[in-house]
From TrEMBL:
It is found in: Cell membrane. Its main location: membrane. The chain crosses the membrane at residues 25-50, 57-77, 97-119, 140-161, 195-219, 240-259, 271-288. Signal peptide: none annotated. Gene3D superfamilies: Rhodopsin 7-helix transmembrane proteins (1.20.1070.10). Keywords: Cell membrane, Disulfide bond, G-protein coupled receptor, Glycoprotein, Membrane, Olfaction, Receptor, Sensory transduction, Transducer, Transmembrane, Transmembrane helix. GO terms for cellular component: plasma membrane. The keyword Cytoplasm does not apply. This is Olfactory receptor. One of its GO terms (molecular function) is G protein-coupled receptor activity. The gene is LOC120029213. It is a multi-pass membrane protein. Residues 40-288 form the G-protein coupled receptors family 1 profile domain.
Amino acid sequence: MDFNSSQEIVFVLHGLNVTQTNKHIYFSFTLILYIFTIFVNLILIVTIFLEKMLHDPMYLFLCNLCINGIYGASAFYPKILYDLLFDSHVISYPGCMTQILVIYSYAFCEFTSLTVMAYDRYVAICKPLQYHSIMTTRKVWTLLLLTWLFSWLESSIGMGLTARLPLCGVDIDKLYCSNWAVVKLSCVDTTLNNLYGFILTFSHVSQTILILISYMNIIKASLHSRVQRKKFMQTCLPHLITLTNFTISLTFDVMYARYGSNTSLLALRNIMAVEFLVVPPLVNPIIYGMKLTRVRNRVVQMFNRKVAALI
């Protein structure tokens, strides 16, 4: 069936398969997870915003990572919560395109942010005397702005290429709308979409190579100084954990979306599809909050002040 207008298309999401009893359990668990994700990210954002001592580039980039975490989580959780609560498994065409735009811009922004953070750590450890002259306030805000603009541009082009395709189906075998899932429903040749996908892959693999080169230089510099080794363990280790976590999560989703089998276990498909939307936004602020001493101390101080005020 070829749909004449995008306005009449309503996609059916086939990722949920829960009983009436389990539905309320899943809803409660998902809601708690969403609230906790927003809470831990907001704690770091508010702490960095209120404390002038944390207005260094590294903490501003961390604040941006937390904002992006909330942005990405909010593209996924509200829809899945609605589906669980009202037993709805459909999404309109405009709603699907919007979800694709937000989810993909979140993923691109996350990866670009991690690349910028790797550059910041490289300058801090390999060129400590030049750090403040290189990482000026203007440069930091320019990098943050370009990170978001670049991510939205990538996502908008991808969504535009998908939106032009006539569709011959409405069934999406996922919990949410993804670009590749919609492209597979097309009635026409999708070579252009595939080509753009390879361009994006090359772009972000290049970012990975830049991160690896940065860390090779950081590790080399850290071996010559005990102070630099300590700085590496405090500031670079959380970044490496975050990068590894996000890269593995995103790779799982991309590989499974393109090459995975629909006959495999539904639970496994769902876990692999949502991991990059659930795990990084939840884990990133916890990792940084525990590992970065200045952030941890400020959070504890703020919490103690609130408790004292209540008493």
